[in-house]
Amino acid sequence: MTKNSVTVIGGGLAGCEAAWQLAKRGVPVTLYEMKPRKRSPAHKLDTLAELVCSNSLRGDRLVNAVGLLKAEMRKLDSIILRSADATAVPAGGALAVDRVGFSETVDASIRRHPLITIIEEECADIPGKGTVIIATGPLTSESLSERIANMEGLKTLHFYDAAAPIVTYESLDLGKVFAMSRYDRGADYLNCPMNREEYMAFIEALKTAQTVEVRDFEEKAVFEGCMPIESMAKRGDLAVAFGPLKPVGLSDPRTGKRPFAVVQLRQDNAAATLYNLVGFQTRLTFPEQRRVFGMIPGLENAEFARYGVMHRNTFLQSPGYLDDTYRVISQPRLYFAGQITGVEGYVESAASGLVAGLSAAYRACGLPPPHFGGQTAIGAMARYVSAPNSRFQPMNCAFGLLDALETEPGAKRLKNKQQRYERLAQRSLAHLDRLIGQMERDFPTTGNECAMISTKEV
To answer: What sign does the CA torsion over 57, 62, 66, 70 have?
Structure first.
């Protein structure tokens, strides 16, 4: 088979995943990444696949939609999931990674692949020929954003995202902090308990603290799942207590009682020297972060390794413009992948890159690409992005996006939610196994053309 080369713009999770899926099927790839020559305000590392906001890839159980999505991606030999599993840190039932180690692992695997050529410079325009996958993410450079905005039939939208702060372990007051995961699932989180008086004083300070100035339309454009904690506090005094500070499933071993509210800290690196404040995305000024977050028991003298920051996200009005392989309908040589398509989250972003890369690999070889469909999480996300939707907004993976079980002949509705999710997961993985069997017949050498660099070599 003749295998034409493909250009991938962007070395984030989606771009790296797309490049990997192409190269493992023998398709040459040119990968553009503007770092380290140029970087956005949110990027700090020189390596590929940098995690900006959090080190968590969220739940890893099959009864969790993103857990199912990860299981599907593992079956499809995702470089992002292989690297995440290799650099995982304790996080209860979630998959969290050593942020630097993860990026370095992906970077080494991509750079050492003989079919991937990396060009470290900004790609300010879309190449005029050949297949191109645009995976520049929510932090697409201004020049390329302008070029995309002017593409016929496409409309870019914006919302604003926020990253949580990170503190050093040695600066914590361990006399006030206890280690425990919710519902006795280990001790992977550090917990800062608050009584009612401490909580109310914290909320009052949070509501009146100085923030980085934003325009009115930006306030309304914040993605709900990454809302700054100070914005949440303004919705009501107890909004945060029922949100990221909920004490459910936790009890302070020193008192035997459940605190009024709990701030959880999640390990951010393998050495366990850094912890991030779970759910504390913020746009408070740096001095205000020190002052207000210093009111949290155990964080009075916290040393901030990274402050919370606000940054711009860009996404397309994808329904009607992209198909369910993330290809531009009116310009079939072009694909988009990652958060720019309207999928929300690290795993979802990588999954879109996997689908786009796999589809482009098939087409580069003159073959019709597989369609995952609504029975799988990866296919349901692609369908959400491509299906008509006049009120389209970024979306995390959710079981509600998959085909309902009741659509199957003779199926009865399961009232137990966990049983229903388990059945959906079983159906998905069985369906995916059948698709993978066909893929292996289409690409019989897949998996042998390259191997992931082991963590010992990184």
So the answer is: positive
Burial class (CB in 10 A: 0-12, 13-18, 19+), 362: buried
H-type alpha helices, 302-449 = 346-364, 377-386, 417-442
Q: Mean pLDDT, the chain, as a whole number? A: 87
Residue type, 251: S
CA distances from 427 to 35, 72, 134, 162, 185 (A): 41, 11, 32, 36, 27
Give the residue from 270, 278, 254 showing the smallest Cα distance to 189: 278
For residue range 185-236, what is the model confidence (pLDDT) as tens digits? 889 999 999 999 999 999 999 999 998 876 443 445 555 556 889 989 999 9
Q: 379 CB contacts (<8 Å, ≥6 apart)? A: 324, 355, 371, 372, 373
Q: Pairing state of beta strands 156-163 and 261-267?
A: unpaired
| Whether 327 contacts 45, CB under 8 Å | no
d(Cα 211, Cα 453) in Å, to the nearest integer? 43
> What is the model's pLDDT at position 408?
59
Listed ranges 52-61, 138-147, 207-216, 291-300; the one with the highest mean pLDDT: 291-300
Report phi then psi at 361, rounded to 5.
-65, -45
pLDDT in tens, 239-271: 999 999 999 999 999 999 999 999 999 998 888
Using omega within 30 degrees of 0 as the cis cutoff, is the peptide bond preceding 36 cis? Answer: yes
Lowest mean pLDDT among 86-90, 97-101, 104-108, 342-346: 342-346
d(CA 179, CA 361): 46
Q: Which of 350, 456, 338, 449 is nearest to 86 (CA)?
A: 456
For CA atoms 141, 143, 145, 148, give the dihedral sign: negative
Q: Are 34 and 120 in contact (CB under 8 A)?
A: yes
Apex 409 CA angle, 403 and 410, nearest 5: 115
C-alpha angle 265-108-381 in degrees, rounded to nearest 5: 60
Show the tokens assigned to 240: 């945060």
In the chain, the amino acid numbered 384 is Y
Question: How many CB atoms are closer than 10 A to CB 329?
Answer: 12
What is the spatial distance between Cα 353 and Cα 290, in angstroms, rounded to a whole number?
A: 38
- Enumerate helices (H) and strands (E) in the chain, giving the number of each: 12, 16
Torsions phi, psi for 236 (to 5 deg): 155, 150
Backbone angles phi, psi at 139, to 5 degrees: -110, 35
